[in-house]
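Quiz preparation item.
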């Protein structure tokens, strides 16, 4: 299998990977690449990091159940959950988390052994020049608090010599790719991207690694934080643009990814609580745009020279739909609309008492209570929450009218679907079942996903035309 190692650096990297997973669930293809997420964040107890791990495990579970054919393995489906996700630790059985060797309550001054310097040692002046007192007193377990000067030092050790990086170098093969996700206005992401790229390019005696095709998306400021004095925080979003300009100047002469995507907002539209430990930020449209960069990258060939890319929206409005987004987002809207229609079928079919598929394919009460279908239900609950956050955030990604199953022709705003209610999709599932004469498997769960996608795609495929 060909793989794309997706390095998710810092909080933004984690949130973008969440959107990537949701788009994959909705049917966006990775062009045959298995996605291998590698999460790089020193926070030990960050909730959104734990949530991402749970989401990835849920996706993997559904994917595996969809290709299971007893003692053999089926090809990936077309449509929902069509691409594989495999975390780095499962490639060769390593067990340590990518952040454990630096995520601790140890202060930065202890990490760099400042106490071992004699009082008259000239290196004390160097330390005072490079790092503030707050830098030196910060615990590593809560990240680098917007300080790339700290992040560069710690992340260097986090990468070099670690089991997960050794695993990456061992598992990176011909035709594999690398994609790095990071923000440019904080500490972990701004320092992590160029450092990680350099470590890969300088992999000694491993030309497959050092010459790997590499893409990256760097996320410019897209949210603000409330007054740091109210939370005793060391992070002030008033400095985000200054940090971005400095980082961009450095990137210009140092980063060498084959494709570099830039994504950001014109202004800081959303303001979050300044809580360094919790970081309970809602899903944001800019993270969705950054996620779409991976799918674009996986369609491209290696360029003759470095390419810089970005994307815009058609109309600068606060709530985006299919038309205000523009033609470039049709595939994203279709993916989200398709999965939300799948949600409608998941909720309505178990209540349908006269649906012929119950006898034709065994979609009965036992099927709906089975662990495979219930795993889909749980994933869908996470998906629904994610879309709700996007639709209510600033700026809002809200292309759907998705709550009325009896008035579904307007499911996609400013686009008329021929299906007026969920029964249209049920009928198409029956037709798909009757037309399918396949004898290669008897996997009911796979049939469900297959027929549901064929039914939904029958009405939504015109979006991409």
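Solution:
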């Amino acid at each position: 299998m060909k793989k794309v190692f997706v390095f998710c650096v810092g909080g933004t990297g984690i949130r973008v990977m969440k959107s990537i997973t949701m788009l994959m669930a909705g049917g966006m293809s990775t062009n045959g690449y298995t996605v291998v997420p590698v999460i790089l964040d020193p926070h030990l107890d960050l909730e959104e990091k734990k949530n991402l791990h749970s989401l990835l495990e849920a996706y993997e579970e559904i994917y595996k159940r969809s290709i299971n054919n007893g003692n053999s393995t089926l090809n990936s489906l077309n449509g929902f959950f069509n691409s594989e996700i495999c975390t780095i630790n499962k490639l060769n059985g390593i067990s340590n988390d990518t952040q454990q060797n630096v995520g601790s309550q140890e202060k930065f001054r202890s990490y760099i052994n400042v106490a071992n310097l004699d009082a008259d040692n000239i290196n004390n002046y160097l330390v005072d020049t490079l790092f503030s007192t707050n830098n030196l007193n910060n615990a590593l377990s809560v990240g680098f608090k917007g300080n790339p000067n700290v992040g560069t030092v710690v992340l260097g050790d986090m990468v070099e010599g670690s089991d997960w990086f050794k695993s990456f170098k061992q598992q990176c093969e011909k035709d594999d790719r690398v994609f790095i996700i990071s923000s440019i206005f904080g500490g972990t992401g701004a320092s992590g991207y160029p450092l990680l790229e350099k470590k890969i390019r300088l992999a000694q005696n491993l030309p497959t690694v050092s010459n790997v095709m590499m893409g990256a998306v760097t996320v410019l400021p897209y949210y603000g934080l409330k007054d740091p004095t109210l939370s005793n925080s060391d992070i002030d979003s008033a400095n985000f643009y200054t940090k971005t300009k400095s980082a961009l100047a450095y990137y210009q002469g140092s980063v060498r990814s084959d494709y570099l995507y830039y994504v950001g907002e014109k202004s800081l539209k959303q303001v979050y609580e300044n809580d360094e430990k919790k970081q309970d930020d809602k899903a944001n449209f800019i993270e969705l745009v950054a996620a779409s960069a991976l799918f674009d990258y996986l369609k491209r060939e290696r360029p003759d020279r470095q390419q810089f890319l970005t994307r815009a929206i058609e109309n600068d409005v606060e709530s985006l739909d299919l038309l205000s987004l523009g033609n470039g987002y049709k595939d994203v809207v279709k993916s989200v609309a398709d999965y939300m229609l799948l949600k409608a079928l998941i909720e309505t079919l178990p209540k349908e008492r006269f649906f012929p598929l119950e006898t034709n394919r065994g979609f009965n009460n036992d099927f709906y209570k089975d662990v495979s279908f219930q795993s889909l239900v749980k994933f869908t609950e996470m998906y629904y929450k994610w879309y709700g956050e996007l639709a209510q955030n600033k700026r809002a990604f809200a292309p759907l009218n998705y709550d009325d199953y009896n008035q579904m022709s307007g499911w996609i705003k400013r686009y008329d679907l021929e299906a007026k209610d969920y029964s249209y999709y049920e009928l198409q599932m029956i037709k798909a079942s009757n037309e399918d004469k396949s004898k290669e498997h008897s996997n009911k769960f796979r049939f469900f996903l297959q027929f549901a996608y064929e039914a939904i795609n029958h009405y939504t495929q015109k979006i991409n035309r």
